[in-house]
Predict the 3D structure of the following.
Amino acid sequence: MGKVGLLVDFTECIGCQACVKACKEQNNLPRPSYTDYSDLNAETYTVVLNKAGTNFRKLCMHCQDPACVSACPVGALQKTPEGAVTYDADVCIGCRYCMVACPFQVPKYEWDNPFPSVRKCIYCYDIVKEGEQTACARACPTGATMFGERDRLLQVAKRRLAAQPDRYVDYIYGEKEVGGTSTLFLSGVPFDKLGFRMDLGEKSLPELTWVVLNKVPNIVITGYLLLGGIWWIVDRRKRMEAERLAEEEEHEENA
Amino acid sequence: MPRIVGKITFWRVLAAVIIVLGLIVTVRRYFFGLGTVTNLNDGFPWGLWIGFDVVSGVALAAGAFSFAFLCHVVGYGKCHPVIRPAILTGFLGYILVCVGLMYDLGKYYYIWHAILMWNHHSVMFEVAWCVMLYTTVLAVEFSPMVFERFNLDTPRRIIAAVTIPLIITGIILSMLHQSSLGSLFLIVPEKLHPLWYSPLLPLLFFISAFTAGPAMVIFESTLSARVFKRGLPMETICNLSRFLLMGLVIYVAFRLQDLWARGVLGEIFTGSFESIHFILEMLLFIIPMIILARRRAEEHINWVFAASLMVPLGVVYNRINTCIVGMIRSSGTSYFPRWDEFVISIFLVTLGVIAYYLADKYLPVFPKEEEMIPGELGAASESA
């Protein structure tokens, strides 16, 4: 199986919250009421919202090169071969750098738990790796949320844009954002009107830190040689100066 | 010190109050979670404890490495008398940073995972290792003060023999650590305000920390000379203030050049929330620069003292602006530290001050030259 993804077509979403409900059941999340949510939180991996006259979903984008995965000092977050970004609560140390690093502000935290974990959508990894689709895609009655290989979903999205240019804004959100994401969105309303950031760029974020990190071995080696060298030169000069003084003294005593 | 009754002074009462409050908040933090004692939220996961206790704490502990470098590697001026206070400051600073981390980490009980589970693509991984290794190096650099106090000459001689490799290791770790705290923010170009986000963040963090070093030492030596009614190593202070001026000029030039190169100089004058904080931050570097350029330490020790106090404040301000102020606009939420967060930060600083006071009182932090072992950290080399 290639890398999987989700294609969410906002124009087909009827706002029924079936995906939210299915997500909560699949991930054993508490579920007071499915329509109370204004945003993702530690107990809600996905929401269906309505803005500018359209229903739309929010969930983890599962970046191709995820900032959170690169940021995690202990590797609690992983990009699996299937494309899901998963989280291991037994590895996490709780530094929350993933939350800082995520350009989509997806990872959420259990602030009121004395033993807190990061919570976010993991693409129902337990069932996806067995070849099933995610709970939200399975539950969607209209096919607005579609599960499949990312490459194929991208083709589907492009076909739809070409076939019905009046129905959509000509943009696939997630195709290129921060190097591309596994979750893709189509919308009839400009994405910035729904609160999606359009200024994230196409460059993957982990590159930005890696250009510095990969210099560390070099800095260490150069540092030892340079500092050791400076010390050696300065120290040698001092020793020779001391010897010269001692010799002069001896000379004077002899004279 | 104003005395109230016997050994009870105003400062001691204040310290006691802070400690009691600190302990109360500590209990609440560990029993009820971060949400109870902080204003952190899903949109704003890092606050005062990261910005002040950790990131600023590390910067202020930088004196240990700037001095180790100046004194023992390049043999600059007569800074030997203040090397030990610098190392003590660094060591206490790093211990407090570790304690601060134990408050801020959600799963503090898994902190040891950083040793076993590696992700070398993470800046936080580099930060974690630098903290661990450099705290160890500082502990070793600090140990001669304890050995000397208890007349343990053998371990003292062993450490004196490895002083140079030890110092160089410390300098490299410290360099990596200071810069990596800047690198942490390289991954958030879309979140951090352009007045602070720069590809040069690691370099700017490094230079400003290196500069904070001598300022902290001037400030502490002057203060501790007053408290313990000791003579001030005037010649050292003069050399340091000259060095501090140099550092400030280099830092300010770099900072402004960076803004200019990125085309965001105009952001300074927009009058926005960020621009006001930026101007205040820069004043804390530019005013001491002017003072030091116009007033010589020999005649105007009070001016130099004031300048040396402003620089660490400026560095702290810069770190807080990078971690908090510059991140607020993009977060879509608001954040101002809860009183509990301030209590813990003040609590940690208080513990640091008490530890410094006790160490200064009971350990040979300001040693007599002739009692030192040649080659030892802080000992003057033969012909210096």
Q: What stands out?
A: Chain B touches chain A through 65 residues (CB under 8 Å). The first strand of chain B starts at residue 3 and ends at 5. Chain B has one domain: 3-366.
